[in-house]
C-alpha cells in the first residue's frame, strides 16, 4: 500500500500528484489548473462546478478575442491590448520565459491571443492605480583602497512602472496588475533628488497627485504620440525633471522614465474615459 493515496482530478478525472492544486471539491491536475485565468487566485475555496464554469467561459473568450481590433498595445513585460471601439481589453502579466526575462514568449498580438487571455470590459474596471516602485543605490569610487562617496553623491534610481486595476462584476477576476517596463529604468542622479516647482507641476498633471496647484495644461497632451506631450510641454526641460538632475549622461534614461509614465497615464485615460 502506498504512503500517499492517489486522487483523480475533480474536473477531468485524470490522476493527480502531490503538487497538484486543491479545491473545495478535491484536487485539480496541472492541465486543468493551466486552463484557469492567470488572474484567478482563489482555487482552494472554489468548487469543481465554479472552476469548470470558468474554463467554459475562457474557452468562449478564446474565440471572441479573435474578432476584436486591438488598435492599442502597451507594455514590454506585462502587456495590455485595447479595443477602444468595443471598450474591451485583454492583459497578461508576464511575457518572459527566462528567469530574468531574457527570453520572450510574446512577440506579437497573436502570441497574446494564443495564451488564452480573459476579455475585460472597460466598465468592469472600478479603479486604476499607477504604481512606481523605486529602489536606490549609491555608487562610490575607490580612493586609497577604500570606497568613498562622490561629491555630490552619485545615486542610482531604479524605477518599475505597474498598473493595478480593481475589477468588479467579473465572474472570477477581482484585480489585475501589469508591469509595463521589462527591467527597471535606471537613472543616475548627481546629488539627491530635488523637487522644483516645474517638476512638481508636471508630475501632478501626470499622476493626479493631491495637494498641488495645477494649471490648465490640456493642450500639451497628445494621445497619438506619448513623447510629444513631453517634448511640447512648457516644462520640457526643468533643471530637475521629476526630481532628477538632467545631464547629458542621464537624459535618455529620464526620457524613458517619462515615456513609461505617459504610457501608464494613457492606458488609464483610455479605460476610464478621463482626460
Describe this structure in words.
The protein has helices spanning 30-33, 48-64, 109-114, 197-207, 226-231, 251-272; strands spanning 21-23, 26-28, 72-74, 79-83, 88-92, 120-121, 125-143, 146-167, 175-179, 185-190, 240-241, 244-245. It folds into two domains: 1-67, no CATH class; 68-272, no CATH class. It has a four-stranded antiparallel β-sheet, with no helix packed on it. Strands 7, 8, 9 and 10 form a four-stranded antiparallel β-sheet that branches. 24% of the residues lie in helices and 28% in strands. It is globular, with a radius of gyration of 23 Å.
Helix segment count?
Answer: 6
Question: What percent strand?
Answer: 25-35%
The count of DSSP E runs of length 2 or more, i.e. the number of strands, is 12
Strands in their spatial order, largest beta sheet: 3-4-5-6
What string gives the helices and strands in order? EEHHEEEHEEEEEHHEEH
- Stretches where pLDDT falls below 50 for ≥5 residues? 217-224
Largest sheet: 4 strands, antiparallel
How would you concisely characterize the structure shown here?
This protein has helices at residues 30-33, 48-64, 109-114, 197-207, 226-231, 251-272, and strands at residues 21-23, 26-28, 72-74, 79-83, 88-92, 120-121, 125-143, 146-167, 175-179, 185-190, 240-241, 244-245. The protein is an alpha+beta fold. It is globular, with a radius of gyration of 23 Å.
Write the layout of secondary structure elements.
Blueprint: E1 21-23, E2 26-28, H1 30-33, H2 48-64, E3 72-74, E4 79-83, E5 88-92, H3 109-114, E6 120-121, E7 125-143, E8 146-167, E9 175-179, E10 185-190, H4 197-207, H5 226-231, E11 240-241, E12 244-245, H6 251-272
Antiparallel strand pairs: 1-2, 3-4, 4-5, 5-6, 7-8, 8-9, 8-10, 11-12
Amino acid at each position: 500500500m502506498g504512503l500517499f493515496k492517489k486522487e483523480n482530478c475533480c474536473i477531468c478525472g485524470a490522476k493527480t500528484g502531490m503538487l497538484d492544486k486543491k479545491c473545495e471539491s478535491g484536487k485539480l491536475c496541472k492541465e486543468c489548473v493551466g486552463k484557469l485565468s492567470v488572474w484567478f487566485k482563489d482555487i482552494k475555496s472554489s468548487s469543481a462546478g465554479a472552476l469548470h464554469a470558468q474554463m467554459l467561459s475562457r474557452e468562449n473568450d478564446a474565440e471572441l478575442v479573435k474578432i476584436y481590433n486591438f488598435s492599442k498595445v502597451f507594455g514590454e513585460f506585462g502587456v495590455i491590448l485595447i479595443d477602444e471601439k468595443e471598450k474591451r481589453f485583454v492583459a497578461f502579466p508576464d511575457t518572459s520565459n527566462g528567469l530574468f526575462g531574457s527570453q520572450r514568449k510574446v512577440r506579437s498580438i497573436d502570441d497574446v491571443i494564443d495564451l488564452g487571455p480573459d476579455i475585460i470590459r472597460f466598465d468592469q474596471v472600478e479603479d486604476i492605480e499607477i504604481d512606481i516602485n523605486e529602489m536606490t543605490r549609491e555608487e562610490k569610487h575607490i580612493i586609497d583602497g577604500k570606497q568613498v562617496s562622490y561629491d555630490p553623491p552619485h545615486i542610482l534610481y531604479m524605477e518599475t512602472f505597474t498598473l493595478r486595476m480593481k475589477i468588479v462584476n467579473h465572474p472570477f477576476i477581482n484585480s489585475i496588475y501589469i508591469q509595463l517596463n521589462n527591467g527597471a529604468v535606471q537613472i543616475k542622479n548627481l546629488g539627491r533628488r530635488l523637487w522644483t516647482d516645474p517638476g512638481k507641476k508636471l508630475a501632478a498633471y501626470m499622476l493626479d497627485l493631491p495637494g498641488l496647484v495645477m494649471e490648465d495644461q490640456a493642450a500639451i497632451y497628445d494621445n497619438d504620440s506619448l513623447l510629444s506631450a513631453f517634448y511640447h510641454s512648457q516644462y520640457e526641460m526643468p533643471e530637475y525633471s521629476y526630481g532628477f538632475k538632467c545631464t547629458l549622461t542621464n537624459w535618455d534614461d529620464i526620457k524613458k522614465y517619462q515615456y513609461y509614465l505617459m504610457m501608464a497615464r494613457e492606458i488609464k485615460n483610455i479605460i476610464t474615459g478621463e482626460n
